[in-house]
């Protein structure tokens, strides 16, 4: 997990190199996903904070599977609405 606006880089851990997939959801989309789970908030307009992640690496096999499936479904999605819906569903 990398915080919005954070400069970052990476390097291969093995001589053969590496490949990876990244998601860069807009901050507003992450806020919206979180707001849907927080019943005390009236609307996403009340969210002015930037998401913060304490751990840069999350070991969660179920989450990894969900994100992998999301990447594949985003490649197949035909509309922006479909992509945003799939992203929100996964982030929730």
Short description:
Helices cover 40% and strands 0% of the residues.
- Helical content, roughly? 40-55%
The number of helical runs is 3
User: Termini distance?
Assistant: 16 Å
Number of β-strand runs = 0
Mean of residue pLDDT values: 78
Global Rg? 15 Å
Q: What low-confidence regions span 5 or more consecutive residues with pLDDT below 50?
A: none
What share of the residues does DSSP label as strand, in percent? Answer: under 5%
Structural class: mainly alpha
Give the H and E element order: HHH
Description:
The protein is an all-alpha fold and 92 residues long. It has 3 helices and no strands. The chain has helices spanning 27-35, 61-76, 80-91. The longest helix is centred in the last third of the chain and has 16 residues, at 61-76.
Task: Please describe the structure with a list of short key phrases separated by commas or semicolons.
single chain; 92 residues; mainly alpha; 3 helices
List the helices and strands and how they pair.
Blueprint (H helix, E strand, L loop, with lengths): L26 H9 L25 H16 L3 H12 L1
């Amino acid at each position: 997990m990398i915080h919005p606006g954070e400069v970052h880089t990476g390097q291969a851990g093995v001589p053969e190199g590496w490949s990876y997939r990244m998601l860069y959801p807009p901050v507003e989309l992450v806020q919206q996903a979180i707001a849907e789970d927080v019943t005390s908030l009236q609307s996403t307009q009340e969210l002015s904070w930037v998401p913060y992640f304490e751990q840069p690496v999350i070991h969660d096999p179920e989450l990894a599977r969900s994100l992998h499936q999301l990447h594949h479904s985003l490649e197949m999605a035909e509309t922006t609405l479909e992509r945003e819906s799939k992203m929100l569903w996964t982030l929730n």
